[in-house]
């Protein structure tokens, strides 16, 4: 894989964007009985997810770079990942609570973002000792949630999206390897831990 394509995949499927993609899928692909929130107002949920899971953590990382805590937004050094990951996990946990507090939101929303928050905190803990791939954790976690949704709503016929996402996850992990951002062990461990946490955690929560 050439570096330009690898870089594009890494940016388009950055871990901070995965919650927004997942929520868009839940809101606009799953059948109506699965999501009770009115279609004409679903943009509100998507906008809230984008703001709290991408914009706020992204702005936080930018200020960390400006203040010299991190060298770059790519956070190539393991030692510099702790505070950004902790801040991001906190943003996700707060988002899950916001969805949980309001009864108008379906349970799937706060459980999904709660599981994503758990995966970020897991990445934070592991990163204290080892540079695991956050991209791979995000891809594995997203696939785990898709498998869970397929179990919960078999009438949604998610086999096609799941197969597509498996190929996409492979491409993103290959991109991380092509950029020499991680070793194969760090990529595979990230994908496996994200997948297992999301799927098993979802089975317990939903």
Percent in strands: under 5%
Shape label: globular
Alpha-carbon Rg, integer? 16 Å
Distance between the termini: 39 Å
Describe it for me?
It contains eight helices and no strands. By secondary structure, it is mainly alpha-helical. The chain has one domain (3-205). Helix 2 runs antiparallel to helix 3 (42-66) and helix 5 (107-127) packs antiparallel against helix 8 (184-205). 38% of the residues are buried.
In short:
The protein is an all-alpha fold. Helix content is 72%, strand content 0%.
Ordered list of secondary-structure elements with their pairings:
Elements: H1 3-12, H2 18-29, H3 42-66, H4 82-101, H5 107-127, H6 134-152, H7 159-178, H8 184-205
Helix pairs in contact: 1-7, 2-3, 3-4, 4-5, 5-6, 5-8, 6-7, 6-8
Fill in the keyword field for this structure.
206 residues, mainly alpha, 8 helices, 0% strand, globular
């Amino acid at each position: 894989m050439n570096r330009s394509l690898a870089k594009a995949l890494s940016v388009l499927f950055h871990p901070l964007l995965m919650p927004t993609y997942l929520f868009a899928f839940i809101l606009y692909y799953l059948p109506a009985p699965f999501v009770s929130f009115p279609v004409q107002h679903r943009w509100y949920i998507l906008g809230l997810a984008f703001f709290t899971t991408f914009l706020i953590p992204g702005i936080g990382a930018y200020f960390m770079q400006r203040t010299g805590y991190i060298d770059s937004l790519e956070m190539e050094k393991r030692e510099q990942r702790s505070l950004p990951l902790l801040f991001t996990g906190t943003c996700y946990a707060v988002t899950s609570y916001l969805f949980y507090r309001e009864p108008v939101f379906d349970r799937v929303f706060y459980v999904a973002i709660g599981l994503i928050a758990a995966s970020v905190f897991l990445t934070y803990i592991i990163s204290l000792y080892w540079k695991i791939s956050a991209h791979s954790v995000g891809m594995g976690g997203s696939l785990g949630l898709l498998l869970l949704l397929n179990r919960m709503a078999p009438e949604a016929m998610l086999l096609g999206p799941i197969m597509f996402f498996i190929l996409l996850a492979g491409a993103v992990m290959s991109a991380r390897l092509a950029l020499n951002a991680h070793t194969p062990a760090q990529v595979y461990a990230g994908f496996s831990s994200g997948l297992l946490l999301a799927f098993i955690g979802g089975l317990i929560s939903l």
